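Recall the central idea of this unit: under ordinary conditions, the amino acid sequence of a chain determines the structure it adopts. In this exercise we apply that idea directly, starting from the sequence alone.
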Amino acid sequence: MTVAEARAIALRRLTGPEVPAPVRSGTPALDADLILSHRLGMARSSLMAHPETELPDGESFFSDIDRRAAGLPVAYIVGSREFWGLPFTVTPAVLIPKNDTETLVETALARLAELGKDSPLILDVCTGSGCVAVSVARELGNARLGATDISREALAVAETNRDRLLGDDRLRFLSGDLRSSLPSPADFGFEGANWDLIVSNPPYVPSAVVPTLLSDGRSEPALALDGGKDGLDLVKALAKGALPVLAEGGILLVETGEYNARSAAGFLGASGYGNVAVHPDLAGTDRVVEGRKPHG
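Accordingly, the structure predicted from this sequence is:
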C-alpha cells in the first residue's frame, strides 16, 4: 500500500459521521500526515513529494488512525508535541503543551530580564511535561530551576524532557502538593533563601466544565485540569503558598486562562501582591496573571 492510498483511507476514517466532531471538523488531513510521518520516520514534506512511497506496516498505522478517530490526540499517539520550538515527549500522564502557554514563558523571560539577576532562582509548580521549566532553562544558561508536581508519572516525563532537551542538573524535580507548602531553593540543593520567580500552569478549569472537555476522548489527565468549583482552588493555594518562599520583589506568574483570570488577579491583590496584571495570549484571551511580593 502506498502513502497516497493509506492517506485516502485514513481521511475517510477520520471524517465519518461516527467520529467526534472535534476530530472530524478539526485537521484530519494534518492528523493523518503526522501519524504517517511518525510511522515512516519521514518529514511531512517528503510524504507529499513522494506519495508512491510504500507503507510497510499498514496495520499499525490504521490502528493509530482508529485511536485518533476515537478522540485520542495525535500528540499522545506519536509521543511528542512541539513547544517553544522544542520537541517535548508527552504521554497521557501529562497535559499536552499548548501554544497559549508560551505566553507564560514569554512573560517569565521578560520579568527575569527586568530583575537582572546573574543566576536567578526559579520555581515551576505543576510542571507536568516540564515544558515551561525546560524552555526557560534553555533561554537562561545561568538560571537554577526547581520544579514540582503532585504526579510522579508526570515528573518522570518531565525528567525525560530535561535529559533530552537540557542535559544538565540546573533543573531539578520534587514531588509535592502545592496545597501543603511550596519548597525552598534549599530543598533542591540550591544556595539561596528564596525564589526570584515562581511560575505555574496549575489546574484552573471549573469542575463542571472538565467532563465536557474530556467527552471527546482526548484522555488528558483530569487531575491536571480540575481547579475546583470556580477553577480557583489551586490558584488560591498557590498564591498563598508562594509569598513565604518568594524573595522581596519576587514575581509570581500563573496561567489561569479564559475562565477566571480577572478573579485570580483580584485574589492576588487582596492577598498582598503588588503590581498585579493580566497578560493576554496571542489570540487576545486573558492568559497569565502576575503579582509581585512587596519589599519590606
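The first strand starts at residue 80 and ends at 83.
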